[in-house]
Please model this.
Amino acid sequence: MSNNVSLASSPWSAFSGPNLGYVMDMYELYLTSPEEVDADLVALFEQYGAPVVESIETTTKNVGLGNIEKALAAVKYADGIRAHGHLAADIYPLNNQQKDTTSIEASTYGLTDQDLVNIPASFLLNDIPVNVHNGLDAINYLKSIYTSKIAYEFDHVVDKKEKQWLQSKIENGALNAKFSSDEKKAILSMLNKVEGFEQFLHKTFVGVKRFSIEGVDALVVLIDEIIRRSEEQGSKDIMIGMAHRGRLNVLTHNVHKPYEMMLADFAHVPSELFVPKDGSLIATKGWSNDAKYHLGATYKAPNGTTIKLAYNPSHLEVVSPVVNGQTRAAQDDTSNPGLPVQDTAKALSILVHGDAAFAGQGIVTETLNYSRTKGFNTGGSIHIIANNMIGFTTERYDSRSTVYSSDPAKGYEVPVIHVNADSPEEVVQVARFAVEYRVKFGKDILIDLIGYRRYGHNEMDEPMITNPEMYNIVHQHDTVRALYGKKLVSEGIVTDSEVSKLQADVKAELQAALDHIKEVGQGKVSSHEMPDAVKNGFTEDIETAVEKERLEKMNEELLAFPEDFHPFKKLIKILNRRRDPFKGKGKIDWGHAETLAFGTILQDGHPVRITGQDAQRGTFAQRHLVLHDEQNGHEIVPLHHISGSNASFAAINSTLSEESIVGYEYGYNLENENALAIWEAQYGDFANMAQVMFDNFISGTRSKWGVKSGVVISLPHSAEGQGSEHTSGRLERFLQLSAENNWTVVMLSSAANYFHLLRHHAATLGTEAVRPLIMMSPKSLLRNQIVAADVEELTTGKYRTVIEHPTTGKDADKVEKIVFASGKVAIDIAEKVGNGEGFEHLHLVRVEQLYPFPKEEITEILAKFPNAKTLAWVQEEPKNMGSWFFADPFLRDLAADDQEVVYIGRPEHSSPAEGDADSYKEAQAIVIENAVARK
Model:
């Protein structure tokens, strides 16, 4: 189709006489009561304005319209093709889906061909090709555009200018550009590599799982073109996320992992032997390793572009927010005070989805939902559905309740482009279009690459058992390489012998690579040794105390507001009390200690990013990192204005999502390892919704993939009599996942200790000693004076894994019972014993760090109390939850032969806490009484 077009004039020239008068009357009505005007006329008025005839020349043909209803019906017809042409498009390679042509038939609109001939093309098209002369030509042109190998859905886009741009781009022939012979040969060459790689693996490593790309081979071509076009637009970091289907081919041909490295993974030879010596590829592995189709890599191109494929587990869609977090981190300049400065052109995320997973996994919509929010946008992701039209063995009609797997995206005004995966030239055109759209509008766009799956779900699966109808077609269907090769032969661009040579060359290259790795790798094995930095556990020799003068100066700066700023009066009184501790009056509470810690961390050069549904204020109104003018809502962030800051600070209220935001912050820290990235749950139990991120990313990221993370997870946790749900952050789950020094799990009872821990953790960022931090954070303790800190506690000391309570254990010989407790219950016990009078038999040890378990520190404490007969572990969680079953074996190992280890707390329950305040108080009182009793 020619893309030689001329601009259309206003459609009002199609009207004359009474018809023009009618349209002008309708325009007058539209100005006052638009709801009373036909919707199609409203659309024309909105697009073209008042019905003023632009030319006095009116053809007799136009006068012959005679009936405005025919003209409006033609408009509806054209719009019907635009909106519903995709239902009749040639987008299914297997041609096994029923097409719906209802909306693209003239009879549906009460029109004949002659009616359309009598309507000017300018009434239906904005940009008119030179070979379009009337309404019938225009309709046929629209059909050729909207029902081809590419189909479009953009009627759901709300923004008028965006919608007009999309329509113009589609209809002016921009996606029908011609390819040069060299471009076509390059496409064929890539398809030969893609197919040759899969076929070589299929025949050489029979039955070994690889989750073949075959059926959507053009995915590699699509990604390659997106990368190339994005580089032209200035992108230097390309972040790719995808599940296992086709992953090995993307790793090999888009991320440029050498054939030797990939084949080594199949041949059980250490792939690290074949890492390019020029440093162009980084591919890490952990000591426990992972399946080859979960691994990622980073490629550094000669032109300066970095291409990354993220490491991820088999949970199909969970990697998307991780990649978005990495992308945002690559876009953010965090080196200066204030908010990070974002440049969306610097980095791009390409997110590859499965068709069943895109429709079925809720995290997809979570990711789409945050994509245009201030704290999480990345200037638009390019989404690709690698559409096999099947989910394992489940047919599409059992996978979803929508026409397309892509339909969830329409709720977020994301344009959807469907393209036939057997049409590689159209695939390339769509890639170019997607990049151009992202650059112009900074929004997500979705490419539905519709293909099939040549084999079963994996290479040991026989799909004829469950899907015979589809696979009878697949077995008779040529591959896209074969189809495109025949096309180019028919066009005289290549010969049959050249096509055969391309295939032979790929096979020979792969065979040579396999022979080489067998020769070099014979007898060699990979190391499964844990790095020393991990073995050594928690780093203790870090200075975290801060000079009083530095803290006091910062504190004053945090309380200095512009003269024209009017903070909420009650709040300013509370904040002004933060001066008192530096004057010897009162203490520093939890939120105050946190703010001071953040400030010093910024001064030390680490950017801070804290997100969560109430991160700015804090769920319990304890934080107040972002202040609002009570008169006009203007915001200020005091931490942006402290002297000596050397990094950015962002406190972001997130969407009401957990899984996607946790993954995003994890990804942000992976890319910016210097950043203190914190996710705080509104309540600890909100982490339930993000469990896959803890199970499959954060807990095992280093042991599986050799990837270091320092993300911080803050989970408000404690029994307060407010019911079961918001009581527990499910501490037991994190302790169950604790092993190999994979992270640090704490439940603090001291604001000073929190201050030191944040600074300690920040100091490990970017080092080999870094690990994630899981904090069970307080609720009612936020303002408790036992928990609050004196200024001297911040200016001296360091982070402590255990705290011996100062009012107990003063007479070591009288101590018969040592009570170990964490968090709120430890403070409940402390309040019960008061100054210790009458409780000389008891010593309270507040266990601040649960994992790694502080064995050495507790051993030193036990040695000081020779007459202790009972070691009691006290918790407020039910016995089958919390930390008891984790701590029990450690205590028994540390206890002397004559010491008894006992549990004090609630019995086993299926629910984390009592459902009402009265029941809670009764149960909690029993726990505390048992804790302080002599036995």
